[in-house]
Every structure is written in C-alpha cells, then in structure tokens.
Amino acid sequence: MLSRLLIVFSLLISLPVFAHTETDCASAFTTLEINACLNEELQQKQDIMKHYLAAAKQRYHDETQVIEAIETGQAAWEAYKKAYCDSIYIIWMDGTIRVAMSLGCQIKLTEIRTHEIWSSYLTYMDSTPAIMPEPALTYE
C-alpha cells in the first residue's frame, strides 16, 4: 500500500514536467514544436471552416433538402480529406516529418474547402456582396 502511495505521489510531483507549455511558433525548431504549431494552425483553420459552414446552413435554414445536401457533402469531404492526408502520412511514414506532412495536407485542404463553402453557399451570382468575406488561401 505504501509503495502505491509513493508511486502516485511521485507522479503528482512530476506532473508539471508533462504539462503543456506554449510553443513560440515563430521560432519552432524541434519536430514536436513544429507539429504542435501545425496542429494549432489546423485547429484554427477548422474553426474558420465551421464558422463558414454554419453561415451556409443559416442561409438555407428553411430548406431542409439543401441543409441535408450540405451535410452530406461535408461528410464526404471529411472522408476524402482523411483518406488523402493519410496517404501523405504513409508516403513519409519512415521519417519524423510524417506528422508535419499530414498536418500540412489537412491545413491546405481545409483552407480550400472553406473557400469552396464560401464560393458555393455564401456568394451570389450578381453583384450582391457575399454573406461573409472571402476566406484567405495561404497555402503554398
């Protein structure tokens, strides 16, 4: 019993060592730092995409068939993104760059998808201003 308490106590003491620390992405150097920064960027891009998707659904909130079609298209896109970026991971699986390559793939595709959501659902055929601003495409 005492040995279990000592193990638990030592784990609690060492917790700060495992705690998440903020990474300065401008000077990220190690693989872990770069991956953390890319993951953070992906989360930001996904949040933007979700915002545009919500606006698209709001625009068509009275048209259930359109909402269902948007959701079906989004689910198909998510499956495509996973399959495609998984293939990029596999190409690089022998190197430490594999995660960064997969995250970069996901970032790029998420930006493109956000732009497509904007173009397809949040703009008009005439000179009427778009419902939301055009999302940036920053990938290389």
UniProtKB/TrEMBL annotation:
The keyword Acetylation does not apply. Pfam families: LprI. Residues 1-19 form the signal peptide. Keywords: Signal. Residues 27-116 form the Lysozyme inhibitor LprI-like N-terminal domain. InterPro entries: LprI-like_N (IPR009739). Coiled coil: none annotated. It comes from the Bacteria. This is Lysozyme inhibitor LprI-like N-terminal domain-containing protein. It comes from Methylophaga thalassica.
